[in-house]
Amino acid sequence: KTGNAENNSAIEGFDRTKSQFARVFHSGQMMAEQMPEQTRLNAESQLDAWHQLIERGLSQQIRKEKAKMDSGLGLLASFGSTSPFVGLFGTVWGIMHALQDISSKGSASLEVVAGPIGEALIATAIGIAVAIPAVLGYNFFIRLNKANLAKLDHFADDYLRATIQQHLQQQTGMTNGATNTR
Q1: pTM
Q2: How far apart are CA 50 and CA 164, in angstroms?
Q3: What end-to-end distance do the CA atoms of the chain give, in Å?
Q4: Crossing angle (nearest 10°) for helices 73-105 and 110-180
């Protein structure tokens, strides 16, 4: 429908499920293919409206891609923020256990205190050991997602620019052809 066989073969070569770029391209191309041929060749206001629709389609697909990229980050952030508190709870629990042993045995000797305090410190260490990688991973994926979104935005801008340029060239070609035949 676009009048460009090269674009159609490029579309067929894309597997929409494999690449974010392919899905963004496909969303724009699907909207561009719905544009009636006479719109591309005539009414400038209609052409602008179609270009806005294509831009909105591209933006919507980018938002979908962002949602996919961000889908697991909430869980990772939850682990990073709650695991130190779980470790702290384990520490408090261990200290309470140590204090109960002291009161029940009536002695604060190293033998009575060492076991429960050691368990408490292990709980703290586990909480920190879970939190640090989770926070680092969360920050890494946030930066990676921002970089990918910037690339998708640039790709969508380039696609829209190329589509508008192609339509303008078609309009110019039709206008020049109409003046040459007079």
Answers
A1: 0.68
A2: 10
A3: 28
A4: 170
